[in-house]
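[User] At your convenience, examine this fold.
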Amino acid sequence: WILLGLGAIILVQGLREAQAERPLSSADMSAWRPVIFVTASLVIFGLSIEQLGLVVSILLLIGVGAVAARELRPIETVVAALVLIVLSWGIFILGLGLTIPVWPEW
């Protein structure tokens, strides 16, 4: 909750400074693209991990988050997803022994 509060404070301060410098135009609205898609990817991950498992949830996380960056190539996205899946599985399931489902249970 503290991090959420600090993030909100920083966001408000940044928006105030940006508006003081110049008013927002339609071109500035494209700056919201990363904020929207990264936030959406984290929410989707959090909501889907119990139902869809670690692998599918991370694929969704990386897939939706990659939309935020226009210059990413598909191969970079796939490699990032695979690395994150392996590291998450190794750290959280093997290392810490958490009971996170790896695959969806249909």
Observations:
- The longest helix spans residues 32-66.
- The CA atoms of residues 28 and 101 lie 41 Å apart.
